[in-house]
Amino acid sequence: MTEIDISAKRLLEKLAKKVGKTILNHGLVQPGDRILVAVSGGKDSYALLHLLTETLRHAPFKPYIVAIHVVNKDIGYQIDLDFMKSFCLYLGIDLYIEESTVDLTVKSKKSPCFICSWERRKVIFQKAREFQCNKIAFGHHLDDAIQTLLMNMIYHGSISSLPYFVKMFQGERTLVRPLLDLDEQILSSLAKMMNYPVEVKQCKYSDTTKRDAVKKIIEELNSKYPLTGKNLFKSMQNCFHEYLPELNQTLNKSPET
To answer: Looking at residue 253, what is its pLDDT?
Structure first.
C-alpha cells in the first residue's frame, strides 16, 4: 500500500465521518467489542476495513479488530492475496485466510451464489466463535440493501432487506453493516483513488444472478427517475402499516368478545 494523495485522504476522512455517524446512530460498535471483518477481496470489503479502522482510530475506545478471508475452492474466482496481506499489514490488522470446499450439487435448487455465500459464512461464524468476536462486520452498502428489498418482493413475496445490525446465535454474535449509508458509486470512487485491486479472475456465475437482473432494473429506473434508489431506501424507514393489506387487517380486527 503506497502513500495516498491529498484528495484521496480527504475522501477517506469524509466517508469515515459518515461511517462514524452510522455506527453512533445505530450502536454498531461499543467499548469491549471484538470485531471480525469479512474481507472478500472486492472494493466494498476493502473500503469497510479501511473506513472502519479510520473511524475507530478517533474513537475514545479501541475495539479489537481482526480480518478474515475465506477461499471457496472450485468456484473459479481469484483475488490478489498479496495486496490483501500488505493492506492489512498497512492498517495494523491481523489477517486470517481460511479455505472452504463448495459442493454446488448439494442444494441444486439454490443458486451457486447462495451456496457459495452460505459456505463462506459458516466458516466466518465458526472463526468468530474461535476468536471470541461478538461482532461480525460485512461490507454491504446502500445499493445492496435496495437490491435485496426488490429481490425479496419480486422473488419471495416478502418485504425485507439488510438491517444495520442483526443479533444471531441467541444474541452471542451481532452482524453489523457500517457501510449501509454509503452508495456503490462513492465506494467505487474511493476504490479508484485508493487503488484497491479488482478480482484477478471473476467468478463464472457472477453475471447470472437474480441480483444482477434486479440491479439492471434499478439502473433503468434511476435513469428516468434519479431519486429512485434513495427513495426506495428511505421507504424502508418510512412504512405506513395501516396502508399495507395484511397489517391493516390485523390492526383493524375486532377484539373477540
So the answer is: 62
Query: Structure pTM?
Result: 0.88
Confidence of residue 211 (pLDDT cuts 50, 70, 90): confident
Nearest to 226 by CA among 185, 181, 180: 185
Nine-digit cell at 136? 461480525
Start-to-end C-alpha separation, the chain: 71
Helix/strand/coil percentages in the chain, nearest 5: 50, 15, 40
Distance between CA atoms of residues 47 and 77, nearest Å: 20
Domain 6-251 class? alpha beta
Instruction: Sheet containing 165-168: give its strands across.
Output: 94-101, 64-73, 34-38, 135-137, 173-176, 165-168
Neighbours of 168 (CB within 10 A): 13
Query: Which pairing describes strands 94-101 and 34-38: parallel, antiparallel, or unpaired?
Result: unpaired
- Domain definitions of the chain by residue range: 6-251
The helix/strand/coil state of 232 is helix
Select from 63, 12, 72 the least CA-distant residue to 37.
Answer: 63
- φ/ψ of 168, rounded to 5, equals -135, 165
Torsion of CA 177, 122, 196, 226, to 10 degrees: -40
